[in-house]
Amino acid sequence: MLDFVSILAALVILGVVVTIHEFGHFIVGKLSGIAVTEFAVGMGPKIVSWKGKETRYSLRLLPLGGFCAFVGEDEDNPDPRAMNNQPVWKRFLTVFAGPFLNFLLAFIMAVVLIASSAIPDPYSLKTVPMLYSVEESMPAGRAGLQAGDVILMVDGEAITSDDAGVETLRSRIMACADGEEITLTVERGGQQMDVSLAPEYSEEEGRLLIGIVFAAQYEEYNANIITAVPEAFELLGKTVVNTVAFLKDMISGLIRGAGIEEGSVAGVVGIVSSVSTDVQASFSGGFVMGVYSIMFWLLNISLSLGIMNLLPIPALDGGRLVFLTIEAIRRKPLNREKEAIVNLIGFALLILLMIVVTVSDVRGLLK
For the chain, is the Cβ count within 10 Å smaller at the N or the C terminus? Predict the structure, then answer.
């Protein structure tokens, strides 16, 4: 069972990521001379609020978000410090600053985690000739092989402990004649032993099998605080590319009517559930492990928020940047009312998507 502290930690992580995002808008807007009416941490009813020189600051009940309200953001306003009265480049930088700070936070977390060897390289996944599982009714199970066994040789030929070794073993299995046995040399608990078995043909798979699933491993980063910088850039770059590719495939599926695969996308409920579970388990392994877990989720959620907000969807930062780019090309402002209507429609669609994803999250938890 999740305890209150781990759930609260998950909510705080979400709150920090969103607050960092809104602070990016706030600080660049202020530096650009745009008036801010309110900067809020959290959503819902106010817990505490105070008035600065021109901006109201508030802490709200639900630690799930926040906002930065600018003067004249979505309507014409005669105030010279209104957002829509500023040059396009100032508004562009102000809008872009939110996702940028999310990327910056993710980058800092990545550098620290990589330099601390706290995370493996997520793009170094390789299959190794170690058994992850063994099907008891298949030749490997009947021959006595067990999960955790490491295959060292096949028919006296040594195989490498990597993808190439796995492929060598697979090729040997598929090259067997009907009823032909192969001999595997395996290591278990520091001891070596030979096991003979005959692969069986699977009608379902259309090939010879022995009934094993190989384990997969990630390579560990070997970096210090200096060499971790390029590694972090590479990690974030690959993640952005893969995330965009995933979103493209998901949207294509929605257009074809395929729907969203359950568990492929998580909303607030799913994120809080995953984060709180992981944080609780990590702290049970020690304080340092718990801190690494928090940093890991700050990295992932902040990066995801930065990517999502740059999508060219009305009501998101990416949609606003598209409008600003069009305005810069036309050299005259767009119709504010029409732009506000488009943003409102986009916001309504986002709320609908959030509801669908939240329902999916709850169904997953109930299962």
Answer: N
